[in-house]
Amino acid sequence: MIQNLVDSIANHRAKIGILGLGYVGIPLAQRINEVGFPVLGLDVSAERIEQLNSGQSPIKHIPHQAIAAMRNSGFEATGDFSRAAECDALIICVPTPLNKFREPDLSFVTATMDSIAPYLRAGQLLSLESTTWPGTTDEVLLPYVTDAGLTPGRDFFLVYSPEREDPGNPNFHTRTIPKVVGGHTQACLDVGSVLYSAFIDRVVPVSSTRAAEMVKLLENIHRSVNIGLANEMKIVAERMGLDIFEVVDAAATKPFGFTPFYPGPGIGGHCIPIDPFYLTWKAREYGLHTRFIELAGEINAAMPDYVISRLVSALNARQKSLAGAKVLALGIAYKRDVDDMRESPSVFVMERLREWGALVDYSDSNVPVFPRMREHQFDLKSVSLSPEVIASYDAVVLLTDHSDFDYEMIRDNARLLIDTRGKYRGQVAENISRA
How far apart are CA 70 and CA 76, in angstroms? Predict the structure, then answer.
């Protein structure tokens, strides 16, 4: 059974099913298709399926031509989960958000497993890439496999391999980012390593699925804690009349023992604001209180309110109330030059502005229309920028420093400019305030 699947992978006959066609699933499908495997994409969104099958990319940093090339090479997207039976390997790339109590929400994972459970068969490999707590593969996925009468390591192969996508990063791609893999058994790990080695340059095997699950959490907790430190230092530096960006840049010249992290209006993306709380939740099962992780989360979550406080102070100095003020949010994606809105701190700032009674607009060429989101909604379209448009707002708040903004024009025409990204560091002007 093992040798049949290994041979099928080695000669690229194995059909790979990608479950969840989003910011992780599409680049993964693209890479697997690129090396010659037949790839089937499965998703619950009829709109997403139609886009992909018509050769259109739903993600800004993946061009339409790339999707069209996938289609021409045999890639197909479908909502028919019974076709999971066709696949020799199934890779789950669905969201794992938090619920309103900041507890793990695995409903997308379990819904996916419910959909494919009747079609699991001997000789398949199942890999979970969605971020989750240590133990999820064993506690949640394994019962589906055993209930199907299959035995991992003998006639079925179960692995966990955390996604490491960084949308819009020009320096690293799916192929070049090392892939951590943990197996339910040694045989599972062996087959999983063979699969990922077929399209990823470097595979990093670890001792278990639990270890692989913890790796992903550590990576993002490391970033969350250090960004939290940078954000707290920003508040302290501002009170002391110091420019935190100057301080971080100078500290970064030390060739050892320091890694620069920069502050902002909060943290965004699907990973850093969410993943740490998967561990804090699981740690409570062991009687542990992860204070350091939770403190960083609290600091980062409070940054939108800090931005609002700085805006209120700057408006007050101009005898202007935030209530009724026209405010333009510059950049609403969670990071530079992408269209990814997941957990974007810009949205939280916009919601605070609305709560305070401000009249809110936004400008972001990456997000021409404010998208449908599970918890946030604005009936807005991106505003085109010009000197007259900029001058028409009481305040302009730079939240995401996209490279296509004309920063000089914005600075020269804004009545009040709140800079949360240090784009105007070192510049002194009466209309610039930092937050």
Answer: 8
Could you tell me if 321 and 315 are in contact, meaning their C-beta atoms sit under 8 angstroms apart?
yes
> What's CA 324's distance to the chain center, in Å?
34
Residue 207 burial (CB < 10 Å; 0-12/13-18/19+)?
exposed
Query: What residue spans define the domains of the chain?
Result: 2-207, 255-434
Q: What CATH class does 2-207 carry?
A: alpha beta
- C-alpha 109/C-alpha 145 separation (Å) is 14
Task: Locate 239 and state its tokens.
Answer: 């009170």
Give 432's DSSP letter.
Answer: E
Matching fold, domains 2-207 and 255-434: yes
Nearest to residue 264, comparing CAs of 340, 218, 331, 321?
Answer: 331
Helices 244-251 and 209-239: angle between axes, nearest 10 degrees: 130
Contact 225, 204 (CB under 8 A): no
In tens digits, what is the pLDDT along the chain, a chain of 435 residues? 789 999 999 999 999 999 999 999 999 999 999 999 999 999 999 999 999 999 999 998 899 999 999 999 999 999 999 999 999 999 999 999 998 888 899 999 999 999 999 999 999 999 999 999 999 999 999 999 999 999 999 999 999 999 998 887 888 999 999 999 999 999 999 999 999 999 999 999 999 999 999 999 999 999 999 999 999 999 999 999 999 999 999 999 999 999 999 999 999 988 888 999 999 999 999 999 999 999 999 999 999 999 999 999 999 999 999 999 999 999 999 999 999 999 999 999 999 999 999 999 999 999 999 998 877 889 999 999 999 999 999 999 999 999 999 999 999 999 999 999 999 988 878 888 888
Specify the DSSP element, H or E, that contains 183: strand 179-183
The residues annotated as belonging to the active site are 271
The CATH number given to 255-434 is: 3.40.50.720
Q: Is the dihedral of CA 400, 403, 405, 406 positive or negative?
A: positive
As a residue count, the chain comes to 435
The pTM of this model reads 0.92
CA–CA dist 413, 411 (Å, integer): 6
Smallest CA-to-CA distance from 60 within 378, 371, 365 is with 365
Please compute Rg for the chain using Cα positions: 24
Backbone φ/ψ region at 21: left (φ over 0), alpha (ψ -120 to 50), beta = beta
Strands across the sheet with 359-363, in order?
359-363, 326-330, 395-398, 417-419, 432-434
- Picking from 321, 327, 394, the residue whose alpha carbon sits closest to that of residue 354 is 327
Coil/strand/helix, residue 413: helix
Place of tokens 């419910």: 114
